[in-house]
Design brief:
This protein is α/β, with parallel strands linked by helices. The protein has two domains: about 190 residues, no CATH class; about 210 residues, Alpha/Beta hydrolase fold, catalytic domain (Rossmann fold, 3-Layer(aba) Sandwich), CATH 3.40.50.1820. Helix content is about 30%, strand content about 25%. The strands form three sheets. It has an eight-stranded mixed beta sheet with strand order 2-3-5-4-6-7-8-9, sandwiched between helices. A five-stranded mixed beta sheet has the order 1-18-15-12-11, covered by helices on one side. Strand 8, helix 6 and strand 9 form a beta-alpha-beta unit. The chain is globular.
């Protein structure tokens, strides 16, 4: 279909040949008309739904300026809808996922910056214990840290299990929490931070890599990694702190090992894996608030939603996308490792281990979409040709991610191991 730049490249066996592009150059008049049609459609609908994809004008190739304007229109329409739909749950300080309920505490610090407030999601300890124990830990977490500026938000885990912060529903609830506070409280989605103590630190170990493209930085205090891989933290500055005498579950020893692993990853990829690692001498499980040093360190960082290199190990709980990479619904994710980098007009798939289909999302923050784009795997060219910006791509990625910074105007689909 003209303009919908979903270029499908079939890669026979492990790799195949060059895909054929089917995209037309953007005509300025047709592009402007498509954006005008979008503006009229949004204005005519009180709460704009995800309904543009089937409109002929949604597939029209856009100029760069018109793609930027379409992104703005769609984002403002979504914000207006969420402010209406989500205001009540923010006022009640309570989110739901099926039968599960996640209350949250919220306190605001400092003056609101022009670009929006920062958001600090702070996870309490406890875990596999009676509800009253976790309630008490939640109350402690509400007072544990202060920030110079931002929304300090401490949720209460919906369950009382040992893995209370890394069950699959947490990903959904946290994405909704971020969406709510961006829309209702004016949070800057590029300055969202996650931190946690004890069982909350367990959660940070798991959620920082699992939801990597949500975070500007993360801080793990006195937790246990439970075997998690650190590789997806390539673009998430990570603070790791544990007391030297915190010997339960080998937290101190394993924390030191994970700190060394982060250093090795940084040495191999110096533009990534920024870390603050502190094993606090003479401290046990309680670090006497010395761990609060992580917060000003974290505040130095802002999320880059289109990093030059992405390391992604999807899980069943992940939303099926990470930064500018995605997999279609139904794709098997177990044991998958995807690594990709971009440089000028070229995207290189460094690893597609275990993957069947891969979506590469693009826009003018990453490269010049008016020029041909090449996608490589090793020394093989998978795609070499034009890409089109379209309203359909913008809306589809916005509705799936709920994040203006993770909204993309172009998309190329690759298929590996065809016929397996």
């Amino acid at each position: 279909m003209r303009g919908w730049c979903l270029v499908i490249v079939l890669v026979g066996g492990l790799l195949g040949g060059l895909g054929e592009p089917h995209c037309a150059a953007a005509d300025p008049e047709a592009s402007a008309a498509a954006v005008a049609a979008l503006r009229e459609a949004v204005a005519a609908t009180e709460a704009w739904p995800a309904a543009a994809a089937d409109k002929p004008w949604a597939a029209t190739p856009l100029t760069r300026g018109d793609a930027d304007e379409a992104r703005r229109i769609l984002w403002q329409a979504r914000l207006a809808r969420l402010r209406t739909e989500r205001a009540d749950e923010v006022a009640k300080r309570e989110l739901r996922d099926g039968d599960l309920v996640m209350p949250f505490f919220m306190r605001t610090f400092g003056e609101k910056p022009a670009g929006g407030r920062s958001l600090w999601i702070s996870l309490h300890g406890g875990g596999g214990a009676p509800a009253q124990v976790n309630d008490q830990q939640w109350e402690n977490q509400q007072r544990l840290y202060e920030v110079p500026e931002g929304v300090y938000c401490s949720p209460r885990a919906p369950t009382n299990t040992w893995n209370l912060w890394h069950e699959p529903h947490i990903d959904r609830l946290f994405q909704r929490l971020i969406e709510d506070l961006v829309a209702v409280e004016g949070v800057d989605p590029d300055r969202v931070y996650i931190l946690g103590y004890s069982a909350g630190g367990d959660g940070v170990y798991q959620l920082a890599p699992r939801m990597a493209d949500h975070w500007a930085a993360a801080a793990m205090m006195a937790g246990h990694p439970n075997g998690v891989s650190l590789e997806p933290l390539r673009n998430v500055p990570f603070a790791l702190q544990v007391g030297e005498l915190d010997t339960a579950y080998d937290r101190a020893r394993i924390g030191a090992e994970y700190g060394a692993a982060l250093q090795r990853l940084h040495d191999a990829d110096p533009e990534g894996y920024r870390a603050l690692v502190k094993i606090h001498a003479g401290k046990g499980h309680w670090m006497d608030r010395d761990d609060a040093a992580a917060l000003p360190w974290m505040a130095r960082f802002t999320r880059d939603p289109v990093p030059k290199r992405v390391v992604w190990q999807p899980t069943a709980a992940s939303p099926g996308s990470c930064y500018w990479l995605a997999v279609p619904p139904g794709e098997k994710l177990d044991g998958v490792t995807i690594i990709a980098r971009r440089d000028a007009q070229t995207v290189t798939i460094e690893s597609a281990e275990g993957i069947g289909r891969l979506l590469v999302r693009l826009d003018d923050r990453m490269l010049d979409c008016d020029q041909p784009v090449r996608i490589m795997h090793g020394d093989r060219v998978l795609y070499d040709g034009p890409v089109d910006r379209s309203i359909a791509n913008l809306e589809a990625t916005l509705e799936r991610r709920g994040d203006a910074s993770l909204t993309f105007s172009c998309q190329v689909a690759l298929e590996f191991n065809a016929g397996r």
